[in-house]
Amino acid sequence: xxxxxxxxxxxxxxxxxxxxxxxxxxxxxxxxxxxxxxxxxxxxxxxxxxxxxxxxxxxxxxxxxxxxxxxxxxxxxxxxxxxxxxxxxxx
Length: 91
What we know:
By secondary structure, this protein is mainly α. It has one domain (24-89). It is 53% helix and 0% strand. It contains 4 helices and no strands. It has helices at 2-12, 24-44, 59-69, 75-79. The longest helix is centred in the middle third of the chain and has 21 residues, at 24-44. It is elongated, with a radius of gyration of 22 Å.
């Protein structure tokens, strides 16, 4: 209680700066734009990860992207990185 009173008193005197809280809608929009840019980048490189994984930045997608960045080219090895529901899509 004493802490809350102390903070309220400092705030009234203008001695505290308000915290930065980003607009939720803006933050969600930035996340969506980043995901879209990522999909576009992979599609431009002729890597159709989005046609297999609905969430390209999900657990499976991230593991596959990391493997691709590390130089992995074998599609069988990349398919083995699939997790959970995505494993059912392996032929």
